[in-house]
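My current task is to audit a protein record that another person submitted. I need someone to confirm that the token line plausibly describes how this chain folds. Take the sequence as given and treat only the tokens as open to question. This is what I was given:
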Amino acid sequence: MASALLITVVTAVLSALSAGHQHAREAQGLVTASLAAEQLMARVSSDSYASISEWDGWDEGPGTLVDDDELPTLFSLIGRRVTVESDEHTLELLQVLVDGVTITVESYDSGGRVLARLVRFVPEPQA
């Protein structure tokens, strides 16, 4: 009776530890994907406005990140892609229409599952 109870308790504890470890790895992957997306968004959005459209269709598969030498090894499990679309936003209070582009950066895993998505509107500079 005591050994059955001990086996039940040990099994429950090991299952809880395993689930906790799995959740921690998943959280680490999501944080890594977010950081990878933020890093690429900073590069794209800091480029000159005229050059931003050249980023449309940029895709770095997992293990092929261009700036991989600057990033921790965990980033090698992440892929990133960029889409750039012409867009316009209306400032309701001012009744002003602002032209620009919307940049979307996605980080994804080897299965193609999107782990992080960042979207930023960049207004067209006014002369």
Summary: The chain has one domain: 2-123. The two ends are 84 Å apart (CA to CA). The longest strand covers residues 79-91. Residues 8 and 104 are 49 Å apart (CA to CA).
